[in-house]
Amino acid sequence: MFEAADKQVLLEQRFALSKSLVEGTALRGDLFTLALTNFLKITLPGNALAHEALTVHNPMDKKQLEDALVKALEIIVTVATEEVEYGKVYTTGQIAKLFGVSITTIHNWLKEGRFIGIELKGGNKQTRIPESTRWKSPTGVILTIREVAEKFSTPPQTPRTANQELLELTKSIAFFEQKYKSTYEQYLQNQDIEKADFETRRDLQEWKYLQRRIGDREET
Predict the structure, then answer these.
(1) Coil, strand or helix at 27
(2) Cα–Cα distance between 98 and 90 in angstroms, integer?
(3) The pTM is what?
(4) How far apart are CA 169 and CA 140, in angstroms?
């Protein structure tokens, strides 16, 4: 654990470290700074002031690079010394309520890597999902958990049962079969997917996911 004196030393030296890294000729400090600041903006909750301080509008401006790196180091030191907590952290049960699905579905999404950077913990360890975590939808759209919570800001829904989820999957597949007047397998056989438009390719992505989810259920 960091002592208060350790934190003070780190904060004081962030200026010299930033200047040395940005102005060094042997290292590409500019690229490192851009990568680090972009990483923090992606992974930290939506703090507008912090994000602005981390933004480098002109990568050729060493002063901007130094200032952004100083801010980045300040955030890292602050978080590492556990002085503040950045954003809300959800349990898998809370995430299930947020999405209106079962905890089993959330576990499946974790195994599929749809919560980017978060792995399902085994044993008695509980998986925690920060609100800054990025979630990938079946159609490829990426949202943070915070954005999902804001989008569905209605009171938490009661998680659906396994039978209710199966019914929803079946209805969704029926929608695509009616739209394209074909089953998924027949459509793939009879159509040139390479020539399909964006909407069709997006539908096929979602359709394929639904088919796989149904298949997974039949195997269990």
Answers:
(1) coil
(2) 10
(3) 0.39
(4) 18
C-beta atoms surrounding 103 within 10 Å: 15
Which pair of tokens denotes residue 53? 């301080």
Q: Report the run of H or E that residue 136 belongs to, with start and end.
A: strand 134-136
pLDDT in tens, 22-44: 776 555 677 778 888 877 776 66
Cα–Cα distance for residue pair 36/72, rounded to 1 Å: 7
d(CA 138, CA 189): 22
DSSP per position, 63-92: HHHHHHHHHHHHHHHHHHTTS---S-EEEH
Considering only CA atoms, which of 83, 105, 82 is closest in space to residue 92?
105
How confident is the model over 47-81, as pLDDT tens digits?
A: 556 667 788 888 888 888 888 888 888 878 776 66
Write out the two tokens for 205: 């992505």
Domain locations in the chain as residue ranges = 4-80, 89-151, 162-219
The DSSP string of 141-207 is: -EEEHHHHHHHT-SSPPPPPPHHHHHHHHHHHHHHHHHHHTS-HHHHHHHS-GGG--HHHHHHHHHH
